[in-house]
Amino acid sequence: MTDDPGLHGAETDRTYARAGFGAKVPRGDRPALVVVDLTRGFTEPDFPTGADLSAEVAAAGELVRAAHASGVPVIYTAIGYAPSEVDSIAWLRKAPGMRSLLDGSEEVALDPRLERRDSDQLIVKKGASAFHGTGLAALLSALHVDTVVVCGATTSGCVRATAVDSVQSGFDTLVVAEACGDRAQGPHDAALFDLQAKYADVVSLAEGRSVLAPERPARIAFAGNERLLTPSALADLEATSVWVRSGDLRLHLLDYGPDHATPLVILPGITSPAVTMDFVARELTDLVRPLVLDLRGRGLSDDGPPDGYDLASYAADVEAVLDELGLQRPILLGHSMGARIAAQVAVSGRPALGGLILVDPPMSGPDRPYPTTLATFLSQLEQARRGTDADEVATHWPTWPRREQELRARWLASCSPAAIAGTHAGFESEQFLPLWTKLTLPTTLLFGTQSPVVTETDVAELGRSNPRHRLIGVAGAGHMVFWDQPSAALRALRALLPAQ
Prior knowledge:
Layout (H helix, E strand, L loop, with lengths): L9 H9 L12 E6 L3 H4 L10 H17 L3 E6 L10 H5 L26 E5 L10 H7 L4 E7 L1 H14 L3 E10 L3 H14 L2 E3 L1 H8 L27 E7 L2 E7 L7 E5 L10 H4 L7 E6 L16 H14 L6 E5 L1 H12 L6 E5 L14 H13 L3 H5 L7 H10 L5 H11 L5 H6 L4 E6 L7 H10 L4 E5 L6 H4 L1 H9 L6
Parallel strand pairs: 1-2, 1-4, 2-3, 4-5, 5-6, 9-10, 9-11, 11-12, 12-13, 13-14
Antiparallel strand pairs: 7-8, 8-10
């Protein structure tokens, strides 16, 4: 029987096997995608440092789309130097052709065939490894990543250095062969062989996609120590589950009644399923008919498509709810994300509304990051998905009432990572102030006087830009107004609602 010659010959394979190399890398359940240096200077042959990496860029694009669809973090890297640096960096004395990779140049720009969302990170580095001299290891640790999927250019240089440092930083590492490219085939093959033998698993594009966006059961059915959330989890509430369709999506609401009262449709925040607003809704039934919506991707509602977490999509869901339930001149109450959605619905003018109450809407936008990072949100979600309790929730929200800590511990895991990532991207690409200036409907904006989301400066600007509306501060409250100061916030809210 003839030995399989292997990639580098049977003798090489036997030598490496005898040395104990080539064991299989574990696949974790918290991946991140690191796209190494797929910038024009490396992916386009017209640049001296480049080659035609069209096929590799296309493969990397498939990985990026898979990661975006499942809410997996995407980190891009680029090499870029200030003119003052090029004479002092030792690497550039060995590779002087890379001195043209100057900050702001065409060579340093991300290949335009790749999608970069606002939620994606970009790390500019000075060396081969994406870890050397950067905060990448700290970022991945903050995201509770256990598996790093690497692709990019060049295979024998920055990809190999990044994969080696990934392992040395404690992360199981996969390198996607079809999504890695080099200037020549020999160095590419040798680098993949060495990575497979000693540092990473070199995997196919199909496996890379599967790791980033695995086939999973329905979002609310968790395995192992993660909780199974079903409608029975609502059994203790004094509310009725109602289901509405918005296009192909099934949306869930909690209806507190009574039917004859003025409808108050409550739209929660980015990581707040409907049940977490129960402590607000049940205190209002003597004045209005509260209906709390599980916004798409949360609670018991369906997920939206990967690109379906913008304000227009959310607003369409609210309009479908109002139409299907036949709610006449409802008041919309939105907190945080929900406040932005309520304003979007009001500005559209399609449903006839009876009023608008906006609670601490994010004032962030393209030039102003949202105060809570996406990494923080995803870290809290991962904590919930692995199994958490009220004590652990209290480390983030120590002043909340105990019951609300318990509800968050149970229900945060029902939020889709893609919904959180898509919404957070909207916080930093869509703006609230243009909606506010267009509002003609009677509107009150409640804000926490200690909120980092609606600051004192923001309150002044809101007053100037649309003085017809009321601005009411809840003393001592941060962004989570009702949770931070329940009694004061409820008193302020009740004063704004009509009596039955």
